[in-house]
Amino acid sequence: MSHAPARRRTAAVVALALLVVVLALASLGIGPVRLSPLEVATALFGAGDEITQIIVRDIRLPRTVLALAVGGILGMSGAALQGLLRNPLASPSLFGAPQAAALGAVLVIVAGAADVRSWLLPAAAIAMAFVSVFALLAVAGRNAGLLILILAGLAISSLAGALTALAMNLSSNPFASLEVAFWLLGSLEDRSVRHVALALPFIAAGAMVLMSRRSAFRVLTLGEEAAESLGVDVGRLRLLVIMGVALGVGGAVAVTGTIAFIGLVAPHLMRPLVGHDPGRLLGPSALAGAALLTASDIAVRLIPSATNIKVGVLTAIIGVPFFLYLIVRERRALGGGVA
Amino acid sequence: MSAAFVEAVSLAVRLASRQVLRDVTFTLPRGQFVALVGPNGAGKTTLLRALNGLIASDGTVRIDGTPLASLDVRERARRFAYLPQGHLVHWPLPARDIVALGRYPHGAVDPARLPEKDAAAVSRAMAAADVVAFADRPVTELSGGERGRVALARVLAVEAPVILADEPTAALDPRYQIDVMTVLRRVADDGALVVVVTHDLGLAARFADHVLVLDGGRLVAQGPPGVALSDAILADVFRVRAYRAEHGGARVIVPWSELP
Fold first, then answer.
1. Partners of residue B90 in chain A, C-beta under 8 Å
2. N-terminal to C-terminal alpha carbon distance within chain B
3. Which residues in chain B have Cβ-Cβ distances shorter than 8 Å to A277?
4. How far is A84 from chain B (nearest CA, A)?
5. Angle, nearest 10°, between helix axes A193-212 and A120-140?
6. Shortest Cα distance from A231 to chain B (angstroms)?
7. What is the rounded CA–CA span in Å between residue B218 and residue B22?
């Protein structure tokens, strides 16, 4: 039997987990005060210099935890959607949930109801992520095919984008619009333990829902009809995946703004590692997403610039060419025909 | 005919305001090889899907006396193994893992950690469908004929009492067509009920014990090949005349000329 690939898989996942730990320690050490990994580890365990402890635990830890959790859920959501849709081009933004979540937050900011650190903002973002998913299911119908889901998701994300633009357009407060524009770019700066406390339960719940269905993605490789004949309730699976993605991504977007392309890139990097098995892709994709976002967040702090580069901007700059490369590759796989 | 194993009573299916099946009634025993034939659009695939509950239908389906409606998806999946057309596989998984998906209805969800009895079922199915030689190769790299056999092995691995196969020989070369039918014939001889949709009346006449003829959503004939594929029915349903012969004790039917 094929034990050798299984062992290689385990070794790769362990190596990836170690990379995530190293990146997390580096992230905790980088800032106006540079700290060595040893100083960081000491401070984490509540020993050493008191100021160092405050820097590491109160200022940098929330940012690092959010980078890990948000990157992780984005990677896992991408893997789940790609498994559900059996399409390597799927990503969370496909269903419009992040855009809708962003709209919820933007409405709160423009209405002047809250600043970017208020509880109201994440609550509105999560609520809108839910609304978008329910709207998607209502438009697509109970037993909709994947094409209809994709089109409905496209319509909903476009609508959310248009309404976001409208909200900014109509805002009488130019400072609010500026705030929104920056928030939309996606950032992990100045996040507090309050942000972590609000986002984490939703991210964890979403991850649990998605992980519980992972073996169904393997059966779906045979197509929906065969999967159904093998005992997968495809309608229910679709609902659960969308719920899991809405929970996780809604919670994430609420505190970071929109961070794109992690959900597309992470599953792709991991797919060869797990033998292209969609049932094994979720965990490694979460690790890869966590590593990618943490590394990006380190990079924006290291790149010399007059103002801070937002991490969402960096992931988009790296992600879009990758996306184009995937489209070209998939087009070749489909026979190289011109669309 | 021996005791009914799968019964359909007044089965009817409406799809998008079109009556695709109407008033289909039959009983089939264990251990039979049944060919389901009919012109394009007669409702053959719809009937297969209605039998295992993939689509909603009016009327009743019973398996071994139990109404289909009282079984949940997993219980249905253990009773009816279904081979759809096309043998689609989306990701390049090794053939062995695809075959192992046949154990999903039995709760063996991880191909890398199959319980012993599930691993044994997978090995038996791979041997029966002759796919052991390329068990570790990604299915997407296999030829059409090899992929068809992997799909067949996946269906056999369920070890269900009923196998529903939708055109399992389509797009296969003659050698593989005979291979697939021979494997399914053997499964029927071992006690399963095998229902095969096919356009090949010759294969139906040679391998089947019983033939169901659908036309325009109605069951217009059923019986042994000699009865259900009579000249009158071939003329009526398919509008063809057939060449008939016997070879090595088996019936040979070859559609030969069209009727006006």
1. 86, 220-223
2. 37
3. 91, 93, 97
4. 11
5. 30
6. 4
7. 6
Q: Which of A10, A89, A229, A274 to mutate to test binding with chain B, by most B CBs within 10 Å of its CB?
A: A229
CB spacing of B78 vs A86 below 8 angstroms: no
Q: What would the CATH number be for the domain defined by B1-64+161-260?
A: 3.40.50.300
Report ipTM (2 d.p.).
0.91
The pLDDT assigned to A34 comes to 87
Nearest by CB to A223, which of B76, B88, B104? B88
The H-assigned helical ranges of A30-60 are 37-44, 50-53
What domains does chain A contain, in order, with CATH numbers?
A: 3-333 (1.10.3470.10)
| Out of A223, A231, A277, closest to residue B77 by CB | A231
pLDDT of residue A251: 87
- Residue A143: pLDDT above 70? no
pLDDT tens column, B17-28: 889 999 999 999
Per-residue tokens: A228: 């159904």
**Residue ranges, CATH 3.40.50.300, chain B:** 1-64+161-260
The Cβ-side half-sphere exposure at B69, using a 13 Å CA radius, reads 8
Measured between beta carbons, which residues in chain A are less than 8 angstroms from residue B136? 2
Interface of chain A toward chain B, CB-CB under 8 angstroms: 2, 6, 86, 215, 218-223, 225-226, 228-233, 275-279
DSSP notation for A150-194: HHHHHHHHHHHHHHHHHHHHH-S-HHHHHHHHHHHH---TT--HH
Token digits of residue B166: 């939708």
Cα–Cα distances in angstroms (integers) from residue B17 to residues B14, B20, B54, in the given order:
6, 9, 18
Please choose, from the candidates A107, A159, A151, A111, the residue with its C-alpha nearest in 3D space to the C-alpha of residue A132. Answer: A159
Mean pLDDT of the region A111-127 = 72
Tell me the chain A residues in contact with residue B77 when contact means C-beta distances shorter than 8 Å.
Answer: 229-231
Tokens representing residue A297 in the block = 């967040």
Using the beta-carbon criterion (under 8 Å), do B110 and A222 form an inter-chain contact?
no
pLDDT tops 60 at residue A177: yes
